[in-house]
Design a protein that fits this description.
The chain is of the alpha+beta class. Helix content is 67%, strand content 8%. The chain has twelve helices and four strands, in the order H-H-E-H-H-H-E-H-E-H-E-H-H-H-H-H.
């Protein structure tokens, strides 16, 4: 097989169907750009999970005197109408937190000791109400609510850092509702919602990519068939002189492969442009959103060879299947 003949046939085929070839290139480029973008989105979500979950703390808030008064008042709603006041035991039976009063030193010591004995706990840090009030003023001192908050309204708490932040339910189930504990708060709930949203967006991108991929495949098959029909005389002569089926098919397959490869190159360019102008420079999200651990060029570069291989093989296989049915060789 002469390479010069094959290359000339590829050039002729691409020029004859220039409009459809252009449509194939655009469709392949968009579908592969979405494919690469979805892979990068998955890496980004994984990087954010590793970055943020490592900083997640479980906070065990302890009961205060105010909590005990609120629980007692809620447990005895009929006191104002002459009903006997509810005792601490009655309030406790209502199932409300802090019904037995503010946390005692013994309860506090027991909670801290039990936390430190748990295998999944990495560190335990105690924060007093004064320290909590100071941190609150630092974060929300500019708000109107901060002016009416007093230190005695801020509960003491234990800040617990876990070895595996995804097992925060163990702490919640062990301490929620026990004497002296007001509540157990976990910061990963908000993160789970964020990552669920990002995961949904990723699946949406994959869905759009799949639609674009089907469109690209249909265009490739159509382009190959039109090209084969426009050169049916040449292929008929080649068949009469004894040319093999593979020899006849190669120019058409190579046309589809070249168009797909050009589209893949454009897809790689779009991915690189997005990383450069959106993340690193231009919009520069990396500088503006420093709380987010953005992926780097290493993640992008590892996806480009896969995009190129798919851009080369996908049109080739589509053309091969279409030609076997159309040319019957």
């Amino acid at each position: 097989m002469r390479a010069q003949f094959v290359m000339s046939e590829i050039g002729v085929g691409l020029r004859r169907n220039l409009t459809m070839t252009f449509a194939v290139i655009i469709s392949v480029a968009l579908s592969l750009a979405l494919f690469g973008g979805s892979l990068l989105m998955r890496d980004q979500v994984s990087a954010m999970k590793g970055y943020w979950y490592d900083k997640v703390n479980v906070t065990v808030y302890l009961c205060t005197k105010n909590d005990a008064l609120d629980a007692a008042g809620a447990a005895a709603p009929g006191a104002a109408a002459g009903a006997p006041a509810a005792s601490a035991g009655t309030a406790a039976s209502s199932g409300r937190p802090c019904a037995k009063g503010a946390v005692t030193p013994e309860q506090k010591q027991g909670i801290e000791s039990e936390l430190k004995k748990m295998d999944l706990v990495q560190t335990v840090m105690y924060e007093s109400s004064d320290e909590a009030y100071k941190h609150y003023k630092e974060r929300f001192g500019h708000t109107a609510l901060a002016s009416v908050v007093t230190p005695d309204q801020m509960p003491d708490s234990f800040r617990v850092k876990l070895k595996n932040p995804e097992k925060y339910e163990v702490i919640t189930s062990a301490f929620a509702g026990r004497d002296g504990v007001q509540s157990v708060a976990d910061q990963s709930t908000e993160l789970d919602n964020l990552f669920a949203l990002l995961g949904t967006l990723n699946w949406a991108a994959l869905g759009i990519m799949l639609v674009m991929l089907i469109v690209a495949l249909l265009l490739i098959v159509n382009t190959v068939r039109v090209s084969a029909f426009s050169r049916r005389r040449e292929t008929g002569i080649m068949r009469l002189v004894g040319a093999s089926g593979f020899y006849i098919q190669v120019p058409f397959i190579m046309e589809a492969a070249v168009a797909g490869l050009i589209g893949a190159v454009f897809a790689c360019a779009m991915l690189g442009t997005g990383q450069y102008f959106v993340i690193d420079h231009g919009i520069a999200l990396r500088d503006k959103l420093q709380l987010i651990n953005f992926i780097g060029w290493d993640a992008v570069l590892t996806k480009l060879p896969l995009v190129l291989v798919i851009g080369l093989l996908m049109p080739s296989l589509a053309a091969f299947v279409a030609l076997r049915k159309y040319l019957k060789v």
